[in-house]
Amino acid sequence: MSRLPTQRLLAAAATLTDVAAELGIYDKETATLLRGHAHALSCLVEKLQSGRRLDPLTPAQSRVLTYVRKYLESHGEAPTRKQIAAHFDYASHNAAQEHLRALERKGFVTLTGDGPRNIRLNKRQQTEVRP
């Protein structure tokens, strides 16, 4: 595999950090967002370097992502893990958390910080997931 995509991803991560520093943005929310994006980019770089293809979504992950997207559109904020678990009749909110972590690894969402509504949709989900 060409090193070009890997180099571009690493440059993108560096650019995000540089822009925040130039603007003097050091608040907790921005730092958390940057860490989340850097983590997602590093996971993608790791996959590219190992030659693995990006994992497709499982049916359950696709349903969770669609629910989160629709919830955000209708409520203006992300659902909590508890709300996701209740919607899908999961026994525990940990099941919802595991789906969200998988979606983050696959580049569809970013989990920002420790709050209950810390789910941010990434641009990738807009082109690859159909309701």
Description of the molecule:
With 131 residues, the protein is mainly alpha-helical. It has two domains: 4-50; 59-128, Winged helix-like DNA-binding domain superfamily/Winged helix DNA-binding domain (Arc Repressor Mutant, subunit A, Orthogonal Bundle). It contains six helices and two strands. The chain has a two-stranded antiparallel ribbon with strand order 1-2.
* Tally of contiguous helical segments: 6
What is the succession of H and E elements? Answer: HHHHHEEH
Name the beta content range: under 5%
CATH superfamily of the largest domain: Winged helix-like DNA-binding domain superfamily/Winged helix DNA-binding domain
Helicity, in percent? 55-70%
Distance between the termini: 33 Å
Number of DSSP E strands: 2
The third-level CATH topology of the largest domain is: Arc Repressor Mutant, subunit A
What is the alpha-carbon Rg in Å? 16 Å
Q: What's the CATH architecture name of the largest domain?
A: Orthogonal Bundle
Major pleated sheet: 2 strands, antiparallel
How do you describe this structure in short?
The protein is mainly alpha-helical and 131 residues long.
List the helices and strands and how they pair.
Layout: H1 4-23, H2 28-50, H3 59-75, H4 81-87, H5 93-105, E1 109-111, E2 119-121, H6 124-128
Antiparallel strand pairs: 1-2
